[in-house]
Design brief:
The chain is mainly alpha-helical. It is built from 30 helices and 13 strands. The strands form four sheets. The chain has a seven-stranded mixed β-sheet, with helices on both faces. A two-stranded antiparallel sheet has the order 1-2.
């Protein structure tokens, strides 16, 4: 049984996104708490005497009962407005981290912990499953509406290269795993522009909160039996929160120093902020008692009024300074997050100051309450509107006027979503009456998002153009930059995920490795039971792998097996120090080559850079010599140009704005001399031959192995100009890898000619 005040508290006080009637408990004497467990709550009219229905309340103990009741804290509702305002303003005009998100994590834990501790101390069931249903029933529908609107805005205003990312993030956001997806994209070599802003990226913080809302209530189950025996639950919970907070903060500091981009989205690196909010909720009753805190509803004034007012303003000043005075963007979520948490804690502890100039008076005004009411929806919508506007306008940062337009539009849309979706769902007695109804609302919200993103993807997938054949001809010659944009330039942006060269079979049969190596995914062209005339193995980085599509027609014609043993990010070199990531790769590759005895090895033998000259990496000559000494022919591929900007996105933006490939070349392209060395730095490799003993052995059976240097720079950069669009193909899929469409359509013929002229087919 629970009275309307307790029920009201349960429904409205469980996180920092509650849009009305946030509730916080204050200190209750232990004896009073125990007496309350034996006194059944009575009903009370929320608009009448709020001391009615409070366990242990009597006419003589009315003052103490008022202290025991849940109360509405207007200044914390206003603190939401400040935190959300900082998030929006810093995003729109400053492009910095404000600490506002950390305040929401802190307040979420503060309210959640207060709710569950009150249940424990009043002897009521925790109701964890019902809490989960109630919380996500309230949070997910407005989020689903925002996500669907963002999908529509993405389709209308954003380039197609961003569509797959937004589709993935839509489903991840609705499932509260957006932060995990962003961590994956940060470490995924094949991810496109993982650090770039997407219109749903801000859902990472909601995912962290959602995961905490699932896990945190379970912690209170640990003290249920203690509560039933009438013992204090605050002390063991304080110890538990200290342990969790210390472990998480330690990990946060270490992870922020070593992998800040990953740590920023990591739930484990943020849980200490949640623990801090819980600790304040557990300790606040004692703090209030020792400092003589009083609420306006109690009548009378608190002690230390001036100190409270100054403490509140100090907290607000510290919160405002975080991000303006201190640029903490690269320091979160490490120890520096203590600043916004301490600032929020100061406002919470200051509470009602009793001074007209106190920060609580300002935070309790109607404008602050209005922003607090729409804070959840405003957080949801401000970022998609901003990102879509910046993409559409081509700006890096909003100006004063357009920034005000973005903020005004976000406030209006947030108000509409709050009135039309958030408030009706939150106040619905019908949805709260049965658990299955709340579960249906949750499932329906997720299903709408999944159907919207999935349906859009399927419609694009069905409309894809077939992969171009190597022999296909285009209306615009492949070595020309068109002055008029072709009707279709391939690949489309949403097809970029399929542009990485993949072979159809996982390695098996005679080509299956005897051991594994991290980040090496062995693939082969022919099935495991094939009996080919020879074998070609690709080793080195993705810049070796990108040429596989050009090699496939030649291999098919001469019945060759192709094995992809490349390791993204690692050149094939021998005898040089390697970093932790690449260490051991050359030994693994050579061991594999010794076992399968391929006829040909393809590897990149030069390395380009967006800002440095093209070079032959140290250890390349030694690696090639190792192959020759094993009787293996070497296809030494000259590297392709690399760029400071994403070539596909650069050219795509020009084309989608109605420009031509010539205009894209002017904006995005460069002369060949600015990208590659005047002479192939690996030219000396052509003079290598097997050592004397190995050459003599080879002469008994076949021609000695040699090096074939393959240079496609004249096809990639015809007429000494490196353009992002040639013929009807985008040349690059990102800032350094060729599209499979371009490789298949342009590089197959010169690769085949070079190999046949050299006679490699015969030797294989």
């Amino acid at each position: 049984m629970q009275g309307p005040i307790e029920l009201h508290a349960e429904r409205e006080a469980e996180d920092a996104w509650s849009t009305a009637d946030s509730v916080s408990g204050t200190w209750t004497p232990e004896a009073e708490s125990r007496r309350g467990r034996s006194s059944p709550p009575e009903t009370a009219d929320l608009t009448g005497d709020l001391s009615a229905g409070i366990p242990g309340a009597t006419p003589d103990g009315a003052a103490e009962a008022r202290r025991a009741r849940p109360i509405f804290r207007h200044e914390l509702h206003g603190l939401r407005a400040v935190a959300l305002g900082l998030v929006a303003i810093y995003h729109i005009w400053l492009g910095r981290v404000s600490g506002g998100v950390d305040v929401f994590l802190f307040l979420s834990a503060f309210f959640l912990t207060g709710t569950f501790v009150r249940r424990l101390e009043s002897g009521r069931p925790l109701g964890v499953p019902r809490y989960w249903l109630h919380t996500f029933k309230r949070l997910l529908p407005p989020a689903a509406v925002t996500i669907l609107l963002t999908l529509a805005g993405t389709a209308a205003f954003l380039p197609s290269s961003l569509w797959p990312t937004v589709m993935q993030e839509a489903v991840a956001s609705a499932a509260y795993v957006q932060n995990a997806l962003l961590v994956f994209l940060q470490v995924d070599y094949h991810a496109r522009d993982a650090g770039g802003a997407s219109p749903l990226q801000h859902f990472w913080s909601l995912s962290v909160q959602g995961q905490a809302f699932v896990v945190w209530p379970l912690l209170f189950l640990l003290v249920v039996r203690r509560s039933r025996r009438g013992k204090s639950v605050r002390r063991p919970l304080i110890v538990l929160m200290l342990l969790i907070g210390a472990a998480s903060l330690t990990w946060s500091v270490i992870s922020t120093q070593t992998q800040q981009q990953v740590a920023y989205f990591d739930t484990a690196a943020r849980m200490w902020e949640f623990a801090a909010g819980s600790l304040l909720a557990l300790a606040l009753p004692v703090i209030d008692r020792l400092t003589g805190a009083r609420r306006p509803e109690e009548g009378g004034l608190p002690r230390l009024r001036t100190v409270r007012a100054l403490a509140g303003w100090t907290g607000i000043a510290a919160l405002l300074a975080c991000g303006i005075v201190l640029d903490v963007s690269t320091m979160f979520p490490g120890w520096i997050a203590i600043v916004p948490l301490a600032a929020a804690g100061a406002v919470v502890i200051a509470g009602h100051s009793g001074r007209r100039w106190g920060v609580d008076a300002v935070l309790s005004t109607r404008p602050a309450a209005f922003v607090g009411d729409i804070s959840y929806a405003l957080y949801l919508v401000h970022w998609p509107i901003l990102v879509i506007w910046l993409h559409h306008s081509g700006q890096a940062r909003a100006g004063l006027l357009d920034g005000l337009a973005v903020l005004s539009g976000a406030v209006l849309l947030a108000w509409l979503i709050t009135r039309a979706v958030d408030a009706p769902v939150r106040r619905s007695r019908w949805l709260e009456a049965r658990p299955w109804r709340a579960l249906t609302a949750i499932a329906a919200s997720f299903a709408l998002v999944a159907a919207g993103a999935g349906g859009w993807w399927l419609s694009l997938d069905q409309g894809r153009a077939p992969d171009p054949d190597a022999s296909a001809t285009t209306q615009v010659p492949a070595d020309e930059v068109a002055t008029i944009a072709p009707a279709e330039i391939l690949p489309h942006g949403y097809q970029l995920g399929d542009q990485w060269p993949e072979l159809p079979e996982s390695c098996g049969g005679d080509w299956e490795p005897q051991s594994t190596h991290h980040n090496v995914r062995c693939q082969q062209l022919l099935p495991a039971d094939a009996d080919p005339a020879g074998t070609v193995v690709v080793v080195g980085s993705s810049h070796s792998r990108q040429f596989i599509p050009a090699l496939i027609p030649y291999a098919q014609e001469h019945d060759l097996q192709i094995v992809n043993l490349a390791m993204d990010g690692c050149s094939f070199i021998v005898g040089e120090p390697r970093g932790a990531y690449c260490r051991g790769y050359e030994d693994y590759a050579l061991s594999y080559l010794d076992r399968v005895s391929p006829d040909i090895v393809l590897t990149a033998v030069t390395q380009t850079s967006a800002t440095k000259d093209e070079v032959m990496p140290a250890g390349t000559e030694a690696a090639v010599q190792e192959l020759l000494d094993r009787g293996i022919d070497v296809l030494g591929m000259r590297d392709t140009p690399r760029w400071e900007q994403d070539q596909f996105q650069c050219a795509e933006s020009v084309i989608e704005d109605g420009g031509t490939p010539v205009e894209a070349d002017e904006i995005c392209g460069a002369d060949l001399t600015a990208k590659l060395a005047a002479e192939n730095p690996a030219a000396s490799l052509a003079d290598l031959s097997p050592s004397a003993a190995d050459a003599a052995d080879a002469a008994d059976t076949a021609d000695a192995a040699d090096v074939v240097l393959v240079d496609h720079s004249s096809e990639i950069c015809p007429d000494s100009r490196c353009s992002p669009i040639l013929g009807e193909s985008y040349v690059y899929m990102d800032d350094n890898h060729l599209t499979r469409t371009f490789v298949e359509g342009v590089l197959v013929a010169p690769m085949t000619r070079g190999l046949e002229d050299h006679g490699t087919a015969a030797s294989a």
